[in-house]
Model the fold of this input.
Amino acid sequence: MNHNELLKKVNPVYFSAKGCLGLLAETKEPDIMRFYNEVDKETITPGSIDINNPITKSWVVSIEVRYNTWNVIAQKTDCPNIVDLPCGYLPHCLKAAKLNKKYYGLDLPIVIEEISPIAFKNLSDAEKNFVQYHAADATNYISLRNALKDVQGKICIITDGLLGYFNRYDLKAVCQNIHRLLREFGGCWYTSDYEFSDLMAATYALVTGGKKSDMLEANTSGSGKIADADNSDFIFNTGTLEERKNFIEECGFNVKTFRYSDMINFIPSLKENPELMQKILSAYQDFEGWILTADETAETQETEIPFAQNFSVKDNVLSISISGRLDSITAPELLQKYEEQRAKNIFDEIHVDAANLKYISYAGLRALKIMQESCNFKISNMNDEVKKIFEENQEKI
Ligand SMILES: C[S@@+](CC[C@H](N)C(=O)[O-])C[C@H]1O[C@@H](n2cnc3c(N)ncnc32)[C@H](O)[C@@H]1O
Done:
């Protein structure tokens, strides 16, 4: 496997962001088109999106609303630094740089490696000073902190289309990490993920005349497929609004809300159909996004062991010991080293010592599965938490 294949294998979820760009390309917005024209369209077959199909139209409108809401938040915030987590393949950096605000685009390595050069090609020399892209995993604090190492002043983190991809265990890690960043830098966390699936369902009902519940079901099963994981425990996808709110408050955030209808009063792709646009905009009065700040009295979890891996081969057995976190950032490193060992050694058994493995995500499980499928495989000394994740999710990956 080459580097790119390896990243795709452990992080199949990047597909979802290509899909968002593909849908937004239907709006023909010039900045979107600049990025769309240059990305590899492996997962968006040009011509396959039929804008005249009402279902597709409803997706386009919903994603367009989320995209424009992001741009309005960037404009409104008094924070000089905007953290786009996850940035996907969207041209938000062009908007932030025009506002003279520092832009930090963060996403999984597979996304950043492709989008960062495209973005810099589309920025003027002066704008380039405002923009940075970094590979980061939202569950991995060290990767987030490294990405923000030169930040001065408050941060405004904007999250569109992320929380629905996490089970409670990973979601807790993401929330703890963001909490910690807000405690350190000050600022706030905007997210449209709270009620976005409901907004999408309402848009679908108005554009197609169909039932909201059909769209909610399609979203739930669709995102499960995209994330390549069982999503029954993903509360920002399958859970109730109350569960989402309780969860976020338990993570130590103060919750304020914004209404979509206060953020946007025009939907460009519906300009030929003002009646429908008005109906949709008035429906958006019922939907909220969140503005979260860190409750100063809540505890922040502060210990994280850096990732480390050791390999040795003896008597046809490859022994690997892993410390720290095995996630979207470190799983490709493990697989890369594993491939190197395979190229230079002969072994028919793998023993993984997980005594110092503190955390494993789906990406980590996928990396271990690749090893498991190639050799006899044993893993020992897992702590209770890692063991639970490993045993419960083995069959689902
Ligand atoms: C639905 S897309 C949204 C991207 C972008 N905000 C947009 O609206 O197009 C989901 C994004 O989440 C990213 N993602 C998934 N898991 C992540 C993680 N653990 N850390 C950082 N990004 C992640 C994916 O790579 C993908 O770009």
Notes: The longest strand covers residues 349-360. Residues 308-393 form a domain with the Transcription Regulator spoIIAA fold (CATH 3.30.750.24).
